[in-house]
Amino acid sequence: MSKLNSIGLNTKEAEKLASKLNDLLANYSVFYQNVRGYHWNIKGEKFFELHLKFEELYNGLVLKIDEVAERILTLGHTPLHRYSDYFKAASIKETKETSDGKKAVEEILEAFKLLIIKQRELLDIAGKADDEGTNALMSDYIREQEKLVWMYSSFLSKK
Fold it and tell me: Domains of the chain, with CATH numbers?
């Protein structure tokens, strides 16, 4: 019989999941800080609308960061916590331009695309490991973010 961790998952599978979750955590953390920058520095005719939307977004991201870190701990591993580690691990890069609303929304959509891909990969791995906790978390995130992609894409639409 394979070795199981404290929640009954195969330890090797839990380690693989924790590694992928740490990658997700790094991406969420860089994305969070980018969105804070958009919120603080947005200018232009859509200031009031985007300022509020960016605040809603970063408030949601900070909750996800905490949930992902706690899931890593639940699996018996240690979450990354230093930005130097996040910058090495993350595919999402820190943004330079934060005042242009259209560019900010485009970058948000790119970040969501990347996050959704990573979460679908985690969903697949969690399913094979019989890890319902990670599976449920990723399903919830994907459903919410797919809707946000539709909404932010509609904002950019000229039709």
Answer: 11-16+47-156 (1.20.1260.10)
